[in-house]
Amino acid sequence: MSDNKDKRFNTTQKMLEWQYYQILGDLQEIQRHDGDETCPCRLSEDLGENCLAKHSLGLSIIAAETAAMETNKENAKLLWTLAGDAKEHHQQIKGFL
Questions:
Q1: Sign (positive/negative) of CA torsion 68, 69, 75, 78?
Q2: For labelling, which of 3, 19, 27, 71 has a CA lying 20 to 30 Å from the CA of 10?
Q3: Domain spans in the chain, listed from the N-terminal domain onward
């Protein structure tokens, strides 16, 4: 059995770029759904879904995952903050529902 304690996971630039585009996508979805009063999840209480809650949770998850992979401490701190803010937003929406 090998000892992996000293080995560090090296994230490729391609992976970080992919993560970055996923974050942008979730942010765009939040903006789109928040700005569209005709969004079906706002019009029907029977759907059991809320787009803002769903995308806020997705943003929290992908930001935390990216923060764990980021080697730049300042970028990682920003990503952890984004993850926390998005999760808090998700909890507020979930509580409201």
A1: negative
A2: 27
A3: 13-96
